[in-house]
Amino acid sequence: MYNYKIDTYFNIIFTISLFSIIAAFFIEYGLGHQPCNLCLMQRIPYGLSIFLIILNYLLKKNERFVILLLILIFSFSFLISFYHFGIEQGFFKESSVCGLNNKSEIISKEEILKQLSQKTISCKDVTFRIFGLSLTTFNIFISLFLSILLINIFSNYDKFKK
User: What's the pTM value of the predicted model, to 2 decimals?
Assistant: First the structure.
């Protein structure tokens, strides 16, 4: 691994996160591929990492804590992606997370019929692939890479701080 400064690594993570969010929105709104609920959940870690990195640049305090939070965020992202991949491959059954959207808003039979008439995107159906791989597969690799990178930075903090 190269011995860049921590700010350089934060820039790399920020760029990857920003690109991932923009790509997800482009695929959804530009290309018309509707995401499932787990796909939407997989965007959250990238948004959180962008927020934390911007906050770190503004405050410049507790950099080690920010790195630790990023490790937790991308570890969570890896677990959600792995679970989603397992659903896509049939290793796991779909959970209630993959069910109807906004169940708390259903108050009448008309609302129930409206929800049922809309096509619900299943977590096991892959609607978009790049080089034959689902976006969940890419997210597994990205999350794992960023988790390992951040663990290395955290464990060698003094070396990267110079």
Answer: 0.77
Report the number of distinct structural domains present in the chain: 1
Q: Indicate the pairing of strand 133-134 with strand 129-130.
A: antiparallel
Domain that holds residue 93: 6-161
CATH assignment of the domain containing 41: 1.20.1550
* Residue 1 belongs to a domain: no
Residue 84 lies in a domain: yes
25-34 in b/e burial notation, b at 16+ Cβ within 10 A? eebbeeeebe
Q: Which DSSP letter does residue 1 get?
A: -
**Rounded distance, CA 68 to CA 50, Å?**
15
Q: What is the dihedral of CA 85, 88, 94, 99, to 10 degrees?
A: 100
User: pLDDT truncated to tens, each residue of the chain (162 aa)?
Assistant: 455 788 888 999 999 999 999 998 998 888 887 888 788 888 899 999 999 999 988 987 888 899 999 999 999 999 988 887 888 777 777 776 666 554 445 566 676 666 555 556 666 666 756 666 677 788 899 999 999 999 998 988 877 776
